[in-house]
Amino acid sequence: MKILLYGYGNPGRQDDGLGNAFIDQIEGWITAHKIEGIELDSNYQLNIEDANAISEKDLAIFIDASVEDLDDFCISKVTETSSITFTTHAASPGYIVDLCKKIYHKAPPTYLVHIRGYEWAFKEGLTDKAIKNLELALDYVKSFLLDPPSLMNGFDKKKLCK
Q1: Of 117, 125, 114, which Cα lies nearest the Cα of 14?
Q2: What is the rounded CA–CA span in Å between residue 133 and residue 120?
Q3: Which residue from 1, 2, 24 is spatially nearest to 135, judged by alpha carbons?
């Protein structure tokens, strides 16, 4: 199974760096557990080229900070109709899936992990509350990565975004 974990955000804007921190932290865990088939990527934002990055995967999981009033984190399924936005500076996960389908005539099941953030000032470093949310999201996703076929059955309904 080929899986892409892609965290994005701006680490110079406090909790906006949650997606990048997720990738940084899960990388060592994947190596230590000798889990194969997982590609990691992180960036400030999604770009149209990311349609190619997901095109040959069996599953894609994007990770981003959320300003929503969540308990800690939630997960949503991304489809080509999920909040499709594109500007010259950024693309939404829905836009990436839509573009992948239009160019490659296919797209993998795709999810977005929304991790609640609290502070967005021009300052490096995550807040303590955001770090706790990050740890909860990491533990949750790790449990699925240890059993990749369970990912294809979808995530626990308790953690799906409302």
Answers
A1: 125
A2: 15
A3: 24
Secondary structure of 123-144 in HEC code, one letter for each residue:
ECCCCHHHHHHHHHHHHHHHHH
Residue 42 near residue 19, CB atoms below 8 Å: yes
What class, spelled out in words, does domain 3-150 have in CATH?
alpha beta
Nearest to 145 by CA among 23, 56, 30, 21: 30
Tens digit of pLDDT for each residue in 76-115?
A: 999 887 765 555 457 899 999 999 999 999 999 999 999 9
Residue 162 CA from chain centroid, whole number? 17
* Distant-in-sequence, close-in-space partners of 147: CB < 8 Å, separation ≥ 6: none
Say what the pTM is: 0.93
pLDDT digits (tens, 9 = 90+) for 14-64: 999 999 999 999 999 999 999 999 999 999 999 999 999 999 999 999 999
Half-sphere exposure of residue 137: CA atoms within 13 angstroms, side-chain side: 35
Give Dmax (Cα) for the chain. 43
Neighbours of 24 (CB within 10 A): 14
SS (H, E, C) 4-65: EEEEECCCCEHHHHHHHHHHHHHHHHHHHCCCCCEEEEEECCECCCHHHHHHCCCEEEEEEE
